[in-house]
């Protein structure tokens, strides 16, 4: 079987106060923001802090009906999901479906920083929300 996960893209942490979380990571670990973006379609603001070849992704909701807002309301701050890099998001998503897995996205969609993404439901993946991330190279 071909290995579809190539590396960890990011670990996403849901927070109430994005600026406070950024400051804490900077003060404690010396981490700096490499990328910051509002993803309107997901109702989140994100900050990516580089750790080697991966990221810590800090997420906060921009509207009350976003999945991250609902997560914070029910579970509080903490680990939200793990993003795995894949060479081909559509292929990886089809592999999950072919194995009988439950998916949130039926087909890949645009993600932050020009990526292509799809989410796998945590009931399929032993309680962890998984994001499949295809890096499409530098964005202009």
What is this structure, in a nutshell?
By secondary structure, this protein is α+β, with helices and mostly antiparallel strands.
Task: Give a verbal description of the structure.
The structure is a single chain. The chain has 140 residues and is an alpha+beta fold. It has one domain: 2,3-Dihydroxybiphenyl 1,2-Dioxygenase, domain 1 (Roll). Helix content is 22%, strand content 39%. The chain is built from 3 helices and 8 strands; from the N terminus they run E-H-E-E-E-H-E-H-E-E-E. Strands 2-3-4-1-5-8-7-6 form an 8-stranded mixed beta sheet. Strand 2 (33-39) and strand 3 (44-51) form a beta hairpin. The N and C termini lie far apart (36 Å).
Question: What is the helix fraction of residues, given as a range?
Answer: 10-25%
CATH class: Alpha Beta
Structural class: alpha+beta
- What's the overall average pLDDT, rounded? 95
CATH-assigned homologous superfamily: 2,3-Dihydroxybiphenyl 1,2-Dioxygenase, domain 1
Which terms would index this structure?
140 residues; alpha+beta; 2,3-Dihydroxybiphenyl 1,2-Dioxygenase, domain 1; 3 helices; 39% strand
How would you summarize the topology of this molecule?
Elements: E1 5-14, H1 18-29, E2 33-39, E3 44-51, E4 54-61, H2 67-75, E5 78-86, H3 89-98, E6 109-110, E7 116-120, E8 130-134
Parallel strand pairs: 1-4, 5-8
Antiparallel strand pairs: 1-5, 2-3, 3-4, 6-7, 7-8
């Amino acid at each position: 079987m071909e290995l579809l996960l190539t590396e960890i893209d990011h670990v996403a942490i849901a927070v109430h106060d994005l600026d406070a979380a950024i400051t804490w990571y900077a003060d404690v670990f010396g981490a700096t923001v490499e990328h910051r973006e509002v993803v309107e379609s997901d109702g989140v603001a994100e900050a990516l802090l580089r750790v080697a070849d991966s990221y810590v992704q800090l997420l906060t909701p921009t509207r009350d009906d976003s999945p991250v807002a609902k997560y914070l309301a029910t579970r509080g701050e903490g680990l939200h999901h793990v993003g795995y890099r894949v060479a081909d998001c559509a292929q990886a998503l089809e592999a999950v479906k072919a194995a009988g897995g439950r998916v949130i996205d039926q087909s890949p969609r645009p993600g932050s920083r020009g990526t292509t993404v799809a989410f796998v439901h945590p009931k399929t993946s032993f309680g962890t929300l998984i994001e499949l991330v295809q890096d499409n190279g530098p964005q202009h």
